[in-house]
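lol ok so funny story. i was supposed to be doing the assay writeup but got distracted and ended up predicting the structure for this chain instead. priorities right. anyway since i did it might as well share w the group, maybe its usefull for someone
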Amino acid sequence: MAWLTILSIFLMPLGSLFVLLYGVFILADRSDKMMWYTSEPNYVRDRRYKNGVRYVGNISKQHTAKVLASPEVMEVKKRNATISMIIGTVGIVVFTIIMIFAK
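and the output, tada:
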């Protein structure tokens, strides 16, 4: 059990660091993901038909594309990135204070 305590001491700042980096990556990302659905026909192989396939219905398929984010989306991303970076920084500062005063 002692090794778990030692491991947790070294892994504690990683969570805060990852939250901070996540905020930086959100702030740097200028794109947005657009999704739409299309209805496509579904066929099965059937040798009774002349063309060798039989129509059995439609399938709804999801398509995605990255597009340039609108100003409204960029404001939301900036707010979320700022919150993430503040939480990550506070976590790192708290960890540093704990390590300094834990003598």
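The mean pLDDT is 88. The helical segments are 2-28, 71-101.
back to the writeup now i swear
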